[in-house]
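Researcher: Let's do a round of design. I'm pasting the structure tokens now; please hold your answer until I've finished.
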């Protein structure tokens, strides 16, 4: 395709090209809302049908790790916004450093998710034949302290009294947990790939006040992924925490 500098042949001006790219990203994000919306609807229906199972499943999540990851993503949104601003005002070196910081924070987030997933595997909380919501309470050595295991066993007894099929219904919660957080993590991995591309281009000084469309467009995508997590965190981690 014909290209003059940063302007592609089908556009008359860089401004028109930027507006078109931004519009295209907004359309893409709109269909992503519909994509995630199906999962949120499935969550809502099952959460209402099996509140005790969802509460029991949520209580097994590590709130400290989930909260830390939330802070990490909020910081990554800040550094992404800073990279867009730096590109707009012509601070080329700052663009690169802010993009690297965003990538680093995103990598930390994914690393924490790996740790969390391993915990679920070790605690027999992977939906399937070996799933056992009582596993940790029956193996106190896996808990952070014996008192925590005893409290969890007591809470599970109450939950089973309300829902005799709690173990089966809790698998619905964890199916949604892995489906929703896994899909989110996949979007993070795609975002990390885009950030690597931006970093490589920014090192060469490509982004200027006149041309910074890729940084702004990827920034929109990154902020969307962060916002999705802002919804996932309370829905998955904070159920019945007041109890």
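Researcher: That's everything. Go ahead.
Model: Designed sequence:
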């Amino acid at each position: 395709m014909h290209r003059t500098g940063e302007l592609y042949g089908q556009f008359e001006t860089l401004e028109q090209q930027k507006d078109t790219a931004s519009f295209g990203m907004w359309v893409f994000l709109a269909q992503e809302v519909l994509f995630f919306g199906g999962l949120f609807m499935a969550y809502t229906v099952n959460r209402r049908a099996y509140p005790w199972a969802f509460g029991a499943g949520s209580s097994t999540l590590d709130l400290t790790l989930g909260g830390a990851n939330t802070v990490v993503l909020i910081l990554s949104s800040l550094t992404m916004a800073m990279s867009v601003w730096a590109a707009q005002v012509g601070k080329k070196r700052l663009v690169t450093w802010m993009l690297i910081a965003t990538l680093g924070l995103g990598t930390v987030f994914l690393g924490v998710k790996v740790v969390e997933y391993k915990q679920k595997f070790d605690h027999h909380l992977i939906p399937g034949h070996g799933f056992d919501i009582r596993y940790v309470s029956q193996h106190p050595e896996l808990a952070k302290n014996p008192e925590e295991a005893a409290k969890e066993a007591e809470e599970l007894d109450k939950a089973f009294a309300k829902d005799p099929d709690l173990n089966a219904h809790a698998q619905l919660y964890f199916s949604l947990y892995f489906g929703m957080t896994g899909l989110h993590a996949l979007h993070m991995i795609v975002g990390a790939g885009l950030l690597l591309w931006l970093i490589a281009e920014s090192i060469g000084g490509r982004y200027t006040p006149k041309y910074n469309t890729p940084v702004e467009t990827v920034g929109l995508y990154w902020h969307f992924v962060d916002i999705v997590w802002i919804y996932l965190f309370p829905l998955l981690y904070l159920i019945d925490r007041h109890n």
